[in-house]
Amino acid sequence: MFAISVEAMPDQTASPVLDFPWVAFPNSKAERFMVDAADIMVRENDGCDLTVTVAWSEGISGKGRIIYERNGLVRQMSLPLSLTCHVDLKNLASFLAIQLDDTAKKYLWQQRTAITLIGQDRYHSAVTSQFNARCFREVFPRQGFTLYLIGWIHRQEFERIAHPLPIVAPCYFYPPKQNAHDHHAPGTKTANRYVLPGVLHPIVTLMEV
Questions:
Q1: Cα–Cα distance between 142 and 136 in angstroms, integer?
Q2: DSSP-derived 3-state class of residue 207
Q3: What is the pLDDT of residues 8-65, one digit of tens each?
Q4: H-helix or E-strand spanning residue 19
Q5: Computed from CA positions of residues 12, 15, 16, 19, in that sequence, does the dihedral angle turn out positive or negative?
Q6: I want to staple 133 with a disulfide (CB 3.0 to 4.6 A). Which of 83, 109, 145, 171 is the partner?
Q7: What's the structural domain count of the chain?
């Protein structure tokens, strides 16, 4: 197992690698029920009753997309930003992310406006969130980057000494489940673990193993 680090100089003039390079995630305490593994499992067992409305101001330019789960599968849907001002989604297991292209992100910044997210299920009252331009972050460098291998550790050693991440620090299990024979469940998980860099073996020692 390896620990890596990526270093990239920001260059907003470069073309993005992804169609939707800007991403915002529901991650506040109030929004957590939309991505929490335990809540997802309850909703899947009960028939997926999460309801989400995504709304935006009239006149926004650019393109957007939303990522969510339903019936054990990760799904995506384009946001018709120029055609209407909101979409309503029902019977979701989770709501994972809002994605924007450069044009839509720039519009949010220049107009000082936001995309509104309203989510609720049978166990949680409606929660309204505002995703302004500052909430959207790039998840993949659009220019050249330097990848560093900063250390390695045997899998058995990692499993023996690793500490569980707090429940508020989820990670995402990918790829999504394709059929009933897959042995994993897709979605936002909280059973992730970590070790500190100080316990890693230096990369230069890898050739000696």
A1: 15
A2: helix
A3: 666 666 787 788 989 998 878 899 899 888 888 888 888 778 999 999 999 999 999 9
A4: none
A5: positive
A6: 109
A7: 1
